[in-house]
Amino acid sequence: MDKFRTNRVRVRHCGSSMEENNSYTTDGDGGSTETPPPPKEGMTTVSHHYFGDSNGSDDAVSITIIESMKEDYGLFVWPCSVILAEYVWQQRSRFTGIRVIELGAGTSLPGLIAAKVGAHVILTDDSNRLEVLDNMRRVCELNNVKCEVMGLTWGVWDESIFSLQPQVILGADVLYDSSAFDNLFATVKFLLENSPGSVFITSYHNRSGHHLIEFLMVKWQLKCVKLLDGFSFLPSWKASGLSGNIQLVEIRV
Ligand SMILES: C[S@@+](CC[C@H](N)C(=O)[O-])C[C@H]1O[C@@H](n2cnc3c(N)ncnc32)[C@H](O)[C@@H]1O
C-alpha cells in the first residue's frame, strides 16, 4: 500500500475538490436529494470531479465521490481513475448508448462518467469486498445515475458473467499486483471473446518502466491497438497535481 501513499495526496489537487467530513453532501449537479446512509466506520471524504473545459462549458458534468480513509484500495480515487475518466469524457460520443462494464471499479469515476454520457454501465468489484460494492451503490445514488452494481472477482466464473456482453470494458489501476494479472486477464479475455468487437480500455502505472503490456499481449494473444501517455490528453489544470508514468491502452482480441 505504501507505494500508493503519495498518490493519495496528489489526487486532492488534481482538478477535483475534496471535503473531509463524516457525512455526505450533494452539489447542484442533479445529485440525489436523499442522503445515503454513511458507512458504519471510518472517516469519509467527498470529492468533486469536474469534466468540461476550465471556463465552465455548458455541457460540463461534475461527479461526486465518497471516499474513505480506510486502508482499502477500492475506497479511494486513484490517479489512473482520474485519467481514464477524462478519456471517457473526451471520447463521450463513442459511449452514448453502449454497454460498458468497469472491472475493479472501486470508487467508479470512469464508469460514472460513462453513465452520465449515456452508456449502460455495470460497475463491478471483488465479490468479497462488500463495503466497496455498497459504496458504489451510494455514489450512483448521489450522482443520480442508474448503474448496475455487481460482484465480479477476476478469474471466478459465476453464472452472471456468461450473460455479460459489454462493448467496452473499463479498468483503472487494475494492473497493480502482478500475482492477480492471470486472473484479471482470464476474465478480460473471456469478456472480449464473448462480446465480439469489444475493447478493454485500461489506465495503469508503468512502475517498472518495462514492457508490461507487450508481455501481456503475447501471453494472452491479445492486440494493443492504442497506447497513450496518460498526461498527453489530461488538461493541465488536472495534471498539475499528478505525476508518474501512467499509460492508457486499448486492447482487443
Ligand atoms: C488500485 S484499486 C483501483 C480502484 C479504482 N479503479 C480506481 O482507479 O480508483 C484496485 C481495485 O481492484 C479491485 N480488485 C482487486 N482484486 C480484485 C479481484 N481479484 N477481483 C475484482 N476486483 C479486484 C479492488 O477492490 C480495487 O477496487
Q: Can you summarize this structure?
A:
The chain is of the alpha/beta class.
Describe this structure in words.
Residues 1-47 are annotated as: Disordered. α2 (79-90) runs parallel beside α4 (109-116). The protein has helices at 5-11, 79-90, 92-95, 109-116, 130-142, 181-194, 212-220, 236-239, and strands at residues 16-21, 44-51, 61-68, 99-102, 120-125, 148-151, 168-172, 199-205, 223-229, 246-252. The chain is an alpha/beta fold and 253 residues long. The two termini are 32 Å apart. It is globular and about 45 Å long. Helix content is 28%, strand content 25%. The strands form two sheets. It has a seven-stranded mixed beta sheet, sandwiched between helices. Strands 1-2-3 form a three-stranded antiparallel beta sheet. Residues 1-15 and 20-36 have low confidence and may be disordered. Residues 73-74, 77-78, 80-81, 104-107, 125-126, 129, 132, 153-154, 172-174, 176, 180, 183 line the site of S-adenosylmethionine.
How would you sum up the major sheet? 7 strands, mixed
Q: Count of helical segments?
A: 8
Radius of gyration: 17 Å
Helix content: 25-40%
Strand content: 15-25%
Mean pLDDT: 85
List the strand order in the largest sheet. 6-5-4-7-8-10-9
- Extended strand count: 10
Give the structural class.
Answer: alpha/beta
**Ligands and ions found:** S-adenosylmethionine
Order of helix and strand elements from N to C terminus = HEEEHHEHEHEEHEHEHE
> Any low-confidence stretches, pLDDT <50, length ≥5?
1-15, 20-36
Shape: globular
N/C terminus separation? 32 Å
GO molecular function, one term: methyltransferase activity
InterPro entries: Methyltransf_16, SAM-dependent_MTases_sf
Protein name: Methyltransferase-like protein 23
GO cellular component, one term: nucleus
